[in-house]
Amino acid sequence: MAEVNIYEGAIDKGLEGVVACTTSISFIVGNTLNYRGYTIEDLAANSTFEEVVFLLWNNRLPNKAELTAFSAELNKNMALSPEFIAVLKTLPTNVHPMAWLRTAVSLLAHWDTDANDNSIEANSRKAVRLTAKMGALVTAFEAIRNKREVLAPKADKSIAYNFMYMLKGAEPEADLVKLFDTCLILHADHELNCSAFATRVTTSSLSDMHSAIVSAIGALKGPLHGGANEQVMVMLAKIGTIEKAQQFVQDALSAKEKVMGIGHRVYKDGDPRAAILRKFSEQLTKKIGKPELYEMSALIDDTMNKQKGLMPNVDFYSATVYHSMGIPTDIFTPIFAVSRIAGWIAHANEQYEKNRIYRPRGKWQGKEGLNWQPVEQR
Ligand SMILES: CC(C)(COP(=O)(O)OP(=O)(O)OC[C@H]1O[C@@H](n2cnc3c(N)ncnc32)[C@H](O)[C@@H]1OP(=O)(O)O)[C@@H](O)C(=O)NCCC(=O)NCCS
């Protein structure tokens, strides 16, 4: 009989409770989240996305000159070249934007002279280019599928401003840019979440940064991770009116179906990002004259808490926030990528610094001792 590997180690399905590495990027304890030692509430109230990206990558806040130089560097790298836009226009757009984005980021590597250079210097140049261009890619997709011109970003404007400007082709309202910037801060990193882990797994083979980010986009796309924000909006549209919300939750629970945007592997007493987004949702749905969207969300939140003790995660209220900003529903998850690339890069760099390849084991549950037979005898 062939020797079979029967692994007897403890199994942690979904790696729950497994501590896979040391990290100093972001940390969750109880219902608090911090980036590099600063609470998410502090950063959301006082910081900008660019400043948070600097913080995540450099383990400290920038001084004024550093922030100005870093923001300028990001701004300079935002635009897509006409040659690259021409290639993007050849890609079919009848796919999910996350699938298109995955391909577009992979294609960026073909134009990046540092693509195969894993030195610290090359990785820091690629980090800036990838982060700066993520919003330009998502908005280019929206322009191409609507047969509109792909706009160039405006000089001296932030990632948040340029995203909103290039998405709609119009000057965005200043208060919405501020709110959107805060949304980017809230989504920038989250310890060893699924896509950060995917980044680290790919990086751990000493593969390149573009490959790691493509892995991350693939992981983020799923409805149990970043894809949940889009699904929340789909769910609200399906429910339709507030009167039907409680029954919808009852039916989902009876059918053992997941209510999107609710629950979390780590937070059991609530996600601090959801608390901030809930206020934005209330404010913005009122502003656009659709307060019932917030009210329906709040009722689902309350019902899930009472019925299952589960609370909303970051994706629950961000859905109505983005909807109120007039953003198409299938662009919600790509926005997550526009922000989370900051964290993915921090994780890739931390992994390169202290690398050991990820290689867990699987407990064998298959057949044993079979003998090959010629095809005629099977
Ligand atoms: C976030 C999530 C993937 C965490 O998964 P997890 O840690 O593996 O938790 P589980 O799926 O094992 O859930 C534990 C229990 O809560 C229930 N549960 C968790 N989330 C639920 C949800 N959104 N709706 C209904 N029930 C839920 C599970 O059915 C399970 O119940 P049981 O013990 O009676 O079988 C999960 O809560 C989920 O699928 N949520 C919806 C998708 C989502 O919003 N994802 C974004 C995450 S930021």
From TrEMBL:
Q: Which residues form the active site?
A: H264, D315
Establish whether keyword Transferase is in the entry. yes
Q: Which Pfam families match?
A: Citrate_synt
Q: Which reaction does it catalyse?
A: propanoyl-CoA + oxaloacetate + H2O = (2S,3S)-2-methylcitrate + CoA + H(+); oxaloacetate + acetyl-CoA + H2O = citrate + CoA + H(+)
Gene Ontology MF terms in the entry:
2-methylcitrate synthase activity; citrate synthase activity
Question: Keywords in UniProt for this one?
Answer: Transferase, Tricarboxylic acid cycle
Instruction: Tell me if Transmembrane helix is a UniProt keyword of this record.
Output: no
What processes does the entry annotate via GO biological process terms?
carbohydrate metabolic process; tricarboxylic acid cycle
Can you list the GO cellular component terms from the UniProt entry? cytosol
Pathway assignment reads:
Carbohydrate metabolism; tricarboxylic acid cycle; isocitrate from oxaloacetate: step 1/2
- Family the entry assigns: Belongs to the citrate synthase family.
Protein name, as recorded: Citrate synthase
Biological source species? Pseudobdellovibrio exovorus JSS
